[in-house]
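User: For a reading group we're discussing how well predicted structures match intuition. Take ABC transporter permease. Before you show the prediction, I'll give you the sequence so everyone sees exactly what went in.
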Amino acid sequence: MTNMRVVLSITKMNFLEWKRNPRIITAFVLAFTFCVMLSGKALMFAKSYGTFMQIFEPFVWAFGDAKSIMLASLLLIFFFMDMPFVNEATPYYLLRINRRIWISAQLLYVGLVTIIYMCFLLGVFCLICAPISFVGNMWSETGALLGYSGVGTDIALPASVKAMEISSPYQCVLTIFLLMLLYTLLGATLMMVFNLLKNKFGGVLSVFALNLYGLLLNPQSIRRVLDIPENLQYKANVLCGWISPLNHATYYMHNFGYDLLPRMWQSYLLFAVLILINIVLITILAKKYQFNFL
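Assistant: Thanks. Here is the predicted 3D structure of ABC transporter permease, as structure tokens, for the group to look at:
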């Protein structure tokens, strides 16, 4: 119980660094701008047809695209650039506790910040689209127009027909929220590994490398590199769906009963294993980390 209080105390100390921190303010401003840009097309489309939306649909459409997920996860760099967090209280804690407790507080902070950030994105989407939205657990006429007419693909609003046919908006948003949460946690823990192993620049570079790897592994790129005929495009989709963490975080890149893409539980398991590996590496590296206090 005492150890838990220490962990919470250190975590609270990390959150106190947010006060008037320009980097944190910038992160939330950029995240808000990002949400406004992604929701703008949905609002314009709904207003042009005079239709209403289910309140979670803009979030579902925005993050049904791998590129949007990648951009959202990159903003977390602003929150975790300084890991491991060293402040005036760190020497005091390290003299009285072991490093495992200290690193547990850092990991708790990473998890809480990621959840807060994801809730912020969801909240902003709901707030922006609230005037023309309803809260009922059913897909809207706007979603049907975007999905079944193919207009959504043309204007970069991927309203998946597959998603609308097999799930409800509440179920869909919870699934996308969890997938994005796991992907961003993977990026945050990977960043901390390289911060401890190399330096802050190495941590930032690792997150860019993870997202670049996912961005390049899209079906179109794979088909061109492997010279896959267009009629065998499905094989490229399956290959990308399995080997790219970014595609594992993309809702429509999953098996819903009639293809060979990964199932949801398999993506959850993959992320859990990778995050656990990062946590083990963080624990090992923290024992050897050399603190420099000025």
